[in-house]
Every structure is written in structure tokens, then in C-alpha cells.
Amino acid sequence: MITFSDTTTSDSIFYQKVPFVGYSHVQGLHAKSDTQWTDRSLQYVVAAFRTATKGKYDYATKFNRKLAADAQIYLPVTQDKEIDIQFMELFISAQQKLTIKGVVKWREEYISTTRQVAMA
């Protein structure tokens, strides 16, 4: 389920993989189509939803259910005009790999710097 808080900004949009208990202002989004959503495709939707709403709402102009329902996001489609789940999965997978690569590089640099300081 994709959730958001209707009392804050659009930064509160999240994908919830497992059942959860939320407080009274947590709203849930449900798909209107019979598309077979996956974890990664829903992570893509969250990113698109956050991008479409970023900077438009704050604590004075709260992101609420009506604004969420009216928000337009753009998703990739196949040549048959179907939502391209495969592309979204591949894209999110690539982003995850790039993030892991960046963390590994940072960790290697951190260890190298620590060794240099310790040897000095």
C-alpha cells in the first residue's frame, strides 16, 4: 500500500510492504486498475508521486486526500499503452545497485582514511 499523512507535506508518501497500524491521519492509496503491482513498481510510483507533489504543500497548505486524488503522476507505458511494470522494476533495481555501489565506495574510502590517520 502507498500511504501518506494528510496533515503534513507530500514528503510523507511511503510504500508500506507489510501490514501496519497507523494513526488517524494516515491515508492509503489503492490502485484503480487490475495491474499486478510489485514491490519495485510501487517504489517507482512513490518516487513519481513525491516528484509530482514536491514543494507544493507545507504545514499551512497541507497535503490532503483531495489533493492526493487530484495529483497527476506519469508512469512509463508499453507500446500497447499498458503500465510498464517491467521497466519500473528494472529502473528501481538499477537505482538500488547504484546506491549500494556508492555505499561500498564510501566505506572503502572511510577505511582507507582511517588507516592513514592511524598510521600517522
Describe this structure in words.
- This protein is mainly alpha-helical and 120 residues long.
- It has one domain (2-119).
- The chain is built from 3 helices and 3 strands; from the N terminus they run βββααα.
- It has a 3-stranded antiparallel sheet with strand order 2-1-3.
- It starts with a strand and ends with a helix.
Estimate nothing, just give the exact number of structural domains. Answer: 1
CA radius of gyration: 19 Å
Structural class from helices and strands? mainly alpha
Order of secondary-structure elements: EEEHHH
Task: Give the number of DSSP strands.
Answer: 3
Proportion of residues in helical segments: 40-55%
Q: Strand share of the residues? A: 5-15%
Task: List the main descriptive attributes of the protein structure presented here.
3 helices; 3 strands; mainly alpha; three-stranded antiparallel sheet; 120 residues
